[in-house]
Amino acid sequence: MVNILIAGVGGQGTLVASRILGNYAVLRGMDCKLSEIHGMSQRGGSVVTHVRMGQDIASPVISEGEADYILAFETLEALRWQHYLKADGHILMNKQQIMPMPVIIGATKYPENIGEKLNSLEKKHIQIDALGLAKKAGSEKCVNVIMIGALARLMGIKYDEIKEAIITSIPQRLVAMNITALDLGYSAS
After folding, report:
1. pTM of the model as a whole
2. What b/e sequence results for 123-141 when a residue is b if at least 16 CB atoms lie within 10 Å of its CB, and e otherwise?
3. 33, 97, 163, 180: which has the fewest Cβ within 10 Å?
4. What is the CATH number of domain 2-188?
5. Do 111 and 144 touch, CB atoms closer than 8 A?
6. pLDDT confidence bin for 42, thresholds 50/70/90
């Protein structure tokens, strides 16, 4: 069984990313359960999706300390959800910083040195510039597929298998751009 927690901010495509992973699992003959937790997603709030794939999965929810991977589409989300990671798990973190409302209104400051904080907590993590790569692919909205590509490579998923899952998960008119994003993400990790 593989447990993947996807964390991001509303509008970053976390739900599409979970659908891609779910389709990957189904196409490979695995059982897959998804659970979506929405904050104020329409207003840039935190959005978290639990993805569990394997055989005979009973619950769609990942417990704290059980995630094999955390796919963080934003740096603060990596820190916010790191306690879900297994001791030998990995965080794949987009370098992008999206200021939450308390930071925007001056009530608090955005945490500095998140990578160093994860190191001090002994959390294995890889940072990638998914936003920069998404722009190269043709749209900032491709951050999710960049991250899926990097995760697939990290997990040892074959390129053609994750490509098939993407093709079956997104509208046909967006396939070419998202395959470019997959290529960039798969090469980034």
Report:
1. 0.93
2. bebebbebbbbbeebeeeb
3. 97
4. 3.40.920.10
5. no
6. low
